[in-house]
Amino acid sequence: MSRPIDPAPARPTPVSTGPCVRCRRPTTRYGTGASPLCAACRQARAEWLARP
Fold first, then answer.
1. Can you tell me the distance from the alpha carbon of 4 to that of 25, in angstroms, rounded to the nearest whole number?
2. Is residue 33 a contact partner of residue 15, using CB atoms and an 8 Å limit?
3. CA distance linking residue 42 with residue 48, whole number of Å
4. Residues 4, 46: Cα–Cα separation, whole Å
5. pTM (2 d.p.)
């Protein structure tokens, strides 16, 4: 008699928040609408990119 194969252990899901990669403030890092930058750093980056 053969034994059934055990399924792979479930991996824990990543926490949706984490530190901003620029200033280390908590921000949503994973999922819909997520970004590695917080709102303040995203705004600063957008302004920097819009410079002539």
1. 47
2. no
3. 10
4. 55
5. 0.61
CA distances in angstroms from 33 to 7, 43, 48, listed in the order given:
32, 15, 21
The residues that bridge with 28 in the sheet, in sequence order, are 17
Torsional sign, CA 44, 50, 36, 30: positive
pLDDT per residue as tens digits for the range 6-39: 565 555 456 688 899 999 998 888 777 788 999 9
Name the amino acid, one letter, at 19.
P
Q: For 1-52, give the DSSP string.
A: -PPPPPPPPPPPPPPSEEE-TTT--EEE-SSTT--SS-HHHHHHHHHHHT--
